[in-house]
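Lecture 7 notes: from sequence to structure.

We start with a single chain of 277 residues. Read the sequence below before looking at the structure.
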Amino acid sequence: MANSDSNDPVLYRVDDRIATITLNRPQALNAMTDSLMSGLSEALARVDADEAVRVVVLTGNGRGFCAGADLAQVANPEPAPAAPAGNSMGDVFNQAMRAIENCPVPTIARVNGAAAGGGFGLSLACDITIAARSAFFVATFGPRLGIVPDLGTTWNLPNRAGRARALGLALLGQRITAEQALDWGLIWSCVKDDQLDTEVERVASILKCSSPDAAVRIRHSIDAAARNTFSEQLDLEMEHQAVLIPKNMMEGALAFMEKREPEFSADRGQDEHPEQR
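Now the structure, written as tokens:
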């Protein structure tokens, strides 16, 4: 598939079942504008429509992942035809975040540099977050802007790192290194800068061969665990297995016995999933 126009705020390409979505405002460290976030939603809609895609990699162009909201736009808002005036958060920004949450295939955040403010939230929204060692994370909302952390940050921080660390990060606005983020359970992996692409490719190569239906059901099950009792979680697992065992398990067992990699169906099974959170 042809690449997006190089001047677009979000670039999109598909190669060997992997869709790469690149935030493309390197001169502003990929700071979020209405146009960029609308472009992110549009890219994810393309993933939704293309059943050949099996995994998404989200990254930033240049030396940063995402510096959060573009404060120049806050001071001088740009027109946003897709959203009512003054409602960028609900109709543009959060729409993009929900598109990540509901993506029909696994998502990987390739954090190549600063993930600040809303960029921090964006980096945590993906299923698997892999950061270069030089990357850092910072929640600038409270002490710098006098607002609440958004884009799902207040959901992800306490669920991953616990209340004490979530409050410290949100109230103090201190940056943490990629290694700290790994140690605190915020991200999956931290690697040397020159190994970032290799590690992302390794993880993507596993996910692109996995069952997308199983991957999304795993995401749903993990997210539901925080609100379910143990017994409710057993029921949810059983509900998913009732679909996945006849669809996938025979192929998995045969592949194991034949000492080969399984070849799972690309079927996403979206209409069969239990209600999302």
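The chain is about 45% helix and 15% strand. Keep this in mind for problem set 3.
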